[in-house]
Amino acid sequence: MSNYVLFIIIVTYLAALFLIAYLAEKNSKSKWVNNSVVYTLSLAVYCTAWTYYGSIGIAANSGVNFLPIYLGPVIAAPLWIVLMRKIVRISKQHKISSIADFISLRYGNHRFLGALVTIVCLMAIVPYISLQLKAVSETFQILSDDTSYVATSVYDDSTFYIALLLAVFATFFGTQTTDASEKHKGIVMSVAFESVLKLVFFLFVGIYVTYVLFDGTEDIYTKMSAAENFESLTTINGFEGGFNWLYTIMLSFMAIFLLPRQFQVSVVENVREKHLKNAIWMFPLYLLLFNFFVIFIAWAGNLTIGNTVQAEYYALLLPLQNGNTFLSVLVFLGGFSAVISMVVVATLALSTMVSNNLVIPYGFLDYFIKSHPERNAKYIKNIRRISIFLIIISAYAFYVNFSFELSLYSIGLMAFVIIAQLAPSFFIGLFWNRGSSQATIAGIISGIAVVFYTLILPFSLHALNGSDDLVQNGFAGIEVLKPHALFGIDFLSPPAHAFFWSILVNLFCYMTFSVIKKGNYRERNYAEMYVDSKNYTDLQDGALVWKGEAYVADIKKVLVKFLGDTRTERALNLFFRKYDLPIDTQMADARLINFSEKLLTGSIGSASAKILIASVVKEDEVSLVEVLKILEESKETIARNKLLREKSNELTQLTNQLKDANEELIEKDRQKDEFLDTVAHELKTPITGIRAATELLLDDDDDMPQEIKAQFLKNMLQDSDRLSRLIHNILDFEKLSKGRTQLNIKTHNIKNTIQKTIDTLRHIADKKQVEIVNLNPNDFEVEYDEDRIVQVLTNLISNAIKFCDVKKGKIIVDYKIDLGYLEVIINDNGRGIPKQDLPYIFDKFYQSKNQNIQKPEGSGLGLAICKQIIENHNGEVWVKNNEKSGATFGFKMPFK
Amino acid sequence: MKKIVIVDDEPNIVMTLEYTFKKHNFEVYIARDGSEALEILQSVIPDVIMLDVMMPNVDGYQTLKSIKENDQLKDTKVVFLTAKNKASDIEKGLKLGADKYLTKPFSVKKIVSEINELIA
Q1: Which domain range does residue B14 map to?
Q2: What global pTM score does this model have?
Q3: What torsion do the CA atoms of B93, B95, B100, B105 make, to the nearest 10 degrees?
Q4: How many structural domains comprise chain B?
Q5: Residue positions of the PTM 4-aspartylphosphate (chain B) (predicted)?
Q6: How far is B19 from chain A (nearest CA, A)?
Q7: Cβ-Cβ contacts under 8 Å, A689 against chain B
Q8: At what angle do helices B11-23 and A624-699 cross, to 10 degrees?
Q9: Is B106 in the A-facing interface, judged by CB distances under 8 Å?
């Protein structure tokens, strides 16, 4: 395949990545961008070209030794739920943007420590990036048929241009905001996409090699078992090999937390804590899938190609030699994806560290203070952009000058060993509050020194002039100082050996110095916050102990330099509102100091933030005892407040319950009052009539005409009847509704009961010439209190008669049996019931406004009594107007 | 002749009042509820109106409000005659502008003397 075609494929692929990143940035709120799958896939930035090509090389030459690098993360994954969550929580709270920030903040925003961590990371990662570039370059050459062509200058080398393109990509999507703790969703999405591609393409080639070129895994195994070194390829090689395994697993365990690119994707880019839950099983699964075919591809390569020098590129060579160019291009793209994601994320992470922990705190703070906010923002971004280019160019330079003889595996492991020097301060600092900044610095420097002597120096000497003198004879010929066998430990591989000694020395220094000398109060303050993060998250801005004198105006001036006027104003307003402070507060307190430092941390790193804020305030020294006392007090206040809040909630609840109960009582009282008022009114009305008529009859006996006398006497009789009827009904209703009347339930024939009622009402109906029909001729025996049902029927039928017109009236009484219910229906053709009365017609003393002429006859309780009787039979009453004219009343009750 | 409008929905009570006031030389008009009363008041300007409170359609309170809005009736006295005898009811009636508040059951003699006193 021609160089140009391949280059065009690469550029097209990069353009696709640009598009994906661009779309993700544009839809940064979408659930397609913010989910646990994308998060897990972004973690797979762990799998670089080392995994893609390097593992096969190791598998071909030394068997299963490629595995421990993946076992570490698999072992670490379940611990994430505790460990990573804690790290993520702390980082979010303090707006931490890199591992350098994380460690320097833990030890009291220590400027030098931040810079040291940055340098350690650069030492580890720049060569690592250069190896990635090497992989691109070499696979590019294997795939292009132009083998005779050798790049003579940088400008002829396609790798150089690819590196520049990657730098552009990282710059474009990595430096959109000055706040580096903001999410880079475009980059994360492109990494996730690449993670899918690299896995899928690797599985393709694995399946192709195993099942197309060979007859499955068994076939390869059988053929391979004939090889003489087969035993050593399939075991971990005894006791000594076991130690190598142990240390390599420990190394990778640490690397999954400490590698800047892993910290970037797993902590800084974490959108939601809960995404960790899925990641802890999906990520190990991803690694498992990735490693499944490694050994088979390696053995297949050994069997068919046999040349183990190029073993790293078996995955590419196998399809290529069998004429499957398409598959090899896919494999190339998969490997390329692994490279891009690693290079982009690693340079992004490193550039943040370089700018926020190295360049800005050591040279630009004075400048920033004098400059304008827009210019500062531009400056910060430019520092990061230049850093990205410088890191990639240095990596390229390293690759051109250094890396010819090195395998992906060895440089990768060297990076792991260097980065592992951060482990004591990182892990122990999370759980032990005594760890101090000086101890950390001592530990890291001594650890690096050991790594330098046991790993970097021999490697450099070998690479520069091919001399292995130091390794064979030791420093100044002293046996015990042999770099790969210090003090006689000669059975470990060089990286495992370097790891063992460096971490031992590092740990020793860290622990000893921490115990001997306590850190200052600020260190202890942050130590408490990290170690007891759960408690201090509640304290929020109040978790920082600070004493001194500071003016809000001065702090505001600093903030404006980086955030601009509007954002500063907004942030401070939010702060004042949150803590209920007046907007024109003059003196700053510890919370504002902490809040302001946090605001700046994302842009310029925690150390710089502290220095800047400290430059405008007058800080008093606080003793350690005081720090702990204040923290303890604020914790107690929080706890007390929580308790108070709970108590007050309980009280509110109780008050509400009381209120409800009270209202219910008042409502009941009101109903009772209303009932009594109505009863009184109803009783007084006939008494008034009787009283007035009696008085007139008594006084006017002589003058009063006879017919008027008779009328008054008739009225008195009527009123007396009304009175006694009323009293009877009230008592009846009261008894029924209080359940003081026992129903006399017996078996009766409903047809007969209806007929009986009609017969007693016949004379009233006849008077009005109203026809009453008993419609259903069938006998049916049901259990009920006959007197009461007659009372209900009488009431309903006489009501119907009342509303019927003279001569034209027709009332139909019917009954139905339906699903265990007896339903009786009384239908009339009278004038019907006003619509507004329908819902209330069964209420006591509710009399229709349109029936005033009938008043003397009704007690206002008739229908209420009917309802009560039917309800006492477990039934219900209903009413509706007929479509044409008249109303239909009915009741329905269950029978056994 | 003095004119009185009696507004009440209880025919038996109305009958006694009608008899009594006629005997005391009143011209008596009868209304069974507020709306009937207002209709009568369009053509008649009485000296006194006797109002029940609890009536169908338009009750006594509403009727009083309408009376108060009518300028022609500004010299007409209004008296409540009702079974509602709680202190709060009486206060409400007088607040609305009634000139007297009498309660049921009543003494016919007393009613007449109260009315005469009011319009004297």
Answers
A1: 2-119
A2: 0.62
A3: 20
A4: 1
A5: 52
A6: 9
A7: 10, 12-13, 16
A8: 60
A9: yes
